[in-house]
Structures are given as structure tokens and as C-alpha cells.
Amino acid sequence: MSLGRHILADLSGIAPALLADPVKVEQILRSGAEAGNATVLAGHFHHFGFELGVTGVLLLMESHLSIHTWPEHGYAAIDIFMCGEAEADAALAALIAALAPSHQQLFKHERGLPSGVCLGI
User: How far apart are CA 99 and CA 27, in angstroms?
Assistant: First the structure.
């Protein structure tokens, strides 16, 4: 039984200027949430300075999306966890299309309850 899909994406070979732009990084993450049919409840993004990385998170009704960027390495670490009707794979596809990495390593995990676990008792 799966309660949600959790995806970790290590993306590299991304244009450094894109990864250092906090406005663009936030737009990309919000577009990913939209592509996954998720509802954004809140967001917070922090830019570490000129030509430095961005850390951002979107709190979703269906869980969360987060990103951490290292422009100096052309690298972004993305965490997608979505449940309900949200589509984590669609969100991931949108993020990959927008970031255009030359390399990607993906880890996908179905989250759920072990058999025999009783809730609320």
C-alpha cells in the first residue's frame, strides 16, 4: 500500500547562472508543483549571495518540494514527496525540462505503511 511517492533527484551539468538565480529557481519549483497537480500552501527561498546557490522549499497540501543548488558545480539536489492525486513523476519531468541537466541520478520510493500496522488504536 502506497501513501505517496518520494523522489530524490541529483541533477548535474546545469547552467550555473540558472542555479544562482533565486527568482528563476522559485519559478521552476512552482512550475513543477503545478505540473504535478499539487497545491502550494507556502514557500521559502534563500539565496546565499552573488553567484552562489539557492535553497528553497514549497510546502504542499500533498507534502513538499525542495531544491538545493550549487552553481559552482552545476548541480541541484531535488526532493519531491507527493501523495493523494498529485503526480510526483510529472513534477519531476517539468523540473528536468526547465533545468536541462546533462546528467541525472534518480531515486524513487513508494512511501506507505508496513502490513499489520494499526493506526488510531
Answer: 11
The catalytic site residues sit at 63, 68, 83
Q: What is the pTM of this model?
A: 0.91
Amino acid at 100: A
Summarize pLDDT for 19-49 with one digit per residue, the tens: 999 999 999 999 999 999 999 999 999 999 9
> Is the CB of residue 39 less than 8 Å from the CB of residue 71?
no
Amino acid at 25: V
Question: Which of 54, 49, 44 is closest to 14 using CA atoms?
Answer: 54
Please state, as a whole number, how many other Cβ atoms lie within 10 Å of the Cβ of residue 68.
17
Gyration radius (Cα) of the chain, Å: 15
